[in-house]
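Q: Please design a sequence for this.
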């Protein structure tokens, strides 16, 4: 129920920006698409990092004991799902971004001025951070999740947390660029 309410909140927030016709960069299909892509990408990685944090805490409380079979199976399945989901959402984001830039550039006027935000060091930093976090580390999570019962649990915790932190940093830059796009027409 909480997830449904959260998704409704993301929809409402994205539509507030979408309905502003005086800001052409926000009055496009890409606004709700980017909101949801960020939500699913960061949400899946946050779940993976939280799950690994919980596993590490349980292991520390148990004196570093091995994971039982059911926990190891749940961990393996969850991390594979997180890795796969992160890579899939990365693909969605890397489709939305160039389409949005080309639509803004083609529209001309204030919209084309807004497209200039998607250049420079910060834009490249955003892409690199999101790709490194969701792409490379997501693949690593998926590939090595089956070794969770071995000594790789600590490494998986580091990878899951690092992936979340890198994508969070990249998406914070993305939000900053989103607000920098605000070039108004009219009043």
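A: Design:
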């Amino acid at each position: 129920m909480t997830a449904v309410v959260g998704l409704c909140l993301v929809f409402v927030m994205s539509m507030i920006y979408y309905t502003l016709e005086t800001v052409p960069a926000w009055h496009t299909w890409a606004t709700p698409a980017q909101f949801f892509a960020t939500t699913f990408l960061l949400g899946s990685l946050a779940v993976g990092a939280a799950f690994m944090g919980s596993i590490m805490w349980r292991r520390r409380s148990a004196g570093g004991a091995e994971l039982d079979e059911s926990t190891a199976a749940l961990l393996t399945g969850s991390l594979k799902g997180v890795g796969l989901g992160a890579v899939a959402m990365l693909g969605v984001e890397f489709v939305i971004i160039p389409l949005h830039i080309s639509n803004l550039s083609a529209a001309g006027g204030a919209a084309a001025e807004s497209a200039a935000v998607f250049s420079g060091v910060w834009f490249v930093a955003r892409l690199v951070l999101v790709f490194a976090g969701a792409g490379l580390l997501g693949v690593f999570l998926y590939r090595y999740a089956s070794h969770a019962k071995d000594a790789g649990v600590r490494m998986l915790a580091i990878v899951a947390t690092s992936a979340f932190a890198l994508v969070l940093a990249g998406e914070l830059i993305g939000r900053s660029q989103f607000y920098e796009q605000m070039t108004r027409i009219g009043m």
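Q: Thanks. Anything notable?
A: The first helix runs from residue 2 to 18. The chain has six helices and no strands.
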